[in-house]
Amino acid sequence: MEPRTYAWVVPGRLAVAERPGGGGRTHRRERREAEQDWWRGQGVWAVVSGMRSRHGLTEYAADGLAVRWHPLRDPEQARAELPRLVDAVLDLLARGDGAVLVHCDHPNEWLAAVDAALRLRLGLAGDIERALIQAAGDGLPIGDLAIALVGAERPAPGAAAALAA
Length: 165
Hints:
The chain contains seven helices and five strands; from the N terminus they run E-E-H-E-H-E-H-E-H-H-H-H. By secondary structure, the chain is an alpha/beta fold. A five-stranded mixed beta sheet has the order 1-2-5-3-4.
């Protein structure tokens, strides 16, 4: 079953998505299994989770996927953890074993920050603003949290609305 919310940052190599099976209270085991199968069919061999909890990691490993966990718990902690998450993704991509899936619980500003940070480190965006615009183009919401997590010290008032437009 094709996931509801995802985007290929690098087609066929790197995707960002909500948690397979849906996030939070909408999560369903059957949906997770079907989406995991779909991801495997797309060549995904590794999952990097930015969720606060370890939910799903055991199931991914049991399915033979390489698993990395870099929880993004709160804005201060996440600014320090996000570069480590990106490093883990780049290490997995360098192995060349197939595609890497990066997910957060929901398609929200946390995932938008991950999307933008990956684009910046991969050289797919010239600057933070362009990376955030591309993340917004992937259908992810951009707000002050996403802006701050990818490196803007003090987002200008209304910056999130301007980027989302």
